[in-house]
Amino acid sequence: MDTHLRSVLKAISYRVIGTFTTAGILWAITGKGGFAATVGVADTVIKIGIYILHERVWDNLRFGRISAPEYEI
C-alpha cells in the first residue's frame, strides 16, 4: 500500500502533465493565455483531490488482490 505522501506526489506529478495539456489545448482553441492558465489550474486542483480519493478507495478494496500465504519456507 502506498503512503499518503506517495499518493499525493503521484497525483501532483500526473496533474502537472494534465495542466499543461489542458491549458495548451485551451490556448490553441481560444488564443487566451490567461483564461487557459486559470482553467488549467482549477482543473488541476480539483483533479488532484479526486485522484487521491480514488487511490485511497482502491487501496481499501480487496477486489483483484491475491492474498499472501500465511507462511513461507
Report what the structure shows:
The chain is mainly α and 73 residues long. The chain has one domain (4-59). The chain is 74% helix and 0% strand. Helix 1 (4-30) packs antiparallel against helix 2 (33-59). The longest helix has 27 residues, at 4-30. The two termini are 24 Å apart.
Largest sheet, in brief, is: none
Looking at the structure, what is the overall shape? rod-shaped
Q: What percent of residues are in strands? A: under 5%
Output the structural class: mainly alpha
**Number of helices, counting only DSSP H or I runs of 4 residues or more:** 2
Radius of gyration: 18 Å
Total domain modules: 1
Q: What's the count of strands?
A: 0
Mean pLDDT: 88
User: H/E series, N to C?
Assistant: HH
Topology:
Layout: H1 4-30, H2 33-59
What's this model, at a glance?
74% of the residues lie in helices and 0% in strands. With 73 residues, the protein is mainly alpha-helical.
Keywords:
73 residues, mainly alpha
